[in-house]
């Protein structure tokens, strides 16, 4: 009986520790949304660059704590195509890490290829950051 009670207490403590760790891990996740246009004649090439078989700069995204990176595309009523990007940043110094990523030679090369395919929104140089208005955890 004592062993069963000890095992139950131990299991409960372990589950509590796991729950607390999971909550702490998610507490500093910063969700990032961004939007940019894409030139219609560049869509196929852009999709090919982002195909699963092309590693591109994926390892750099992980290196700089950018996870669950996704890009979606939609043609809007104005006839133009737009990309919506989303990722979760899990590091502790977003600004510094984005500066380091921007200085990475492979990332600079990647952006020199993808940049001309895109059409930034008026007044923007690249992806426009979006304001999060709702999140359902």
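Q: What amino acid sequence fits the structure above?
A:
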């Amino acid at each position: 009986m004592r062993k069963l009670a000890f095992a139950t207490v131990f299991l409960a403590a372990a589950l509590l520790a796991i729950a607390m760790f999971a909550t702490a891990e998610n507490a500093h996740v910063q969700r990032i949304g961004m939007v940019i246009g894409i030139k219609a004649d560049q869509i196929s090439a852009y999709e090919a660059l982002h195909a699963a078989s092309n590693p591109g700069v994926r390892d750099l995204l992980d290196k700089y704590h950018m996870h669950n990176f996704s890009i979606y595309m939609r043609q809007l009523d104005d006839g133009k195509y737009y990309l919506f990007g989303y990722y979760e940043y899990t590091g502790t110094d977003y600004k510094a890490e984005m500066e380091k990523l921007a200085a990475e030679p492979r990332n600079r090369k990647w952006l020199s290829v993808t940049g001309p395919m895109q059409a930034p929104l008026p007044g923007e140089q690249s992806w426009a950051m979006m304001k999060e208005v709702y999140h359902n955890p």
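Q: And what stands out in the fold?
A: Strands lie at 30-38, 66-75, 81-89, 118-119, 128-130.
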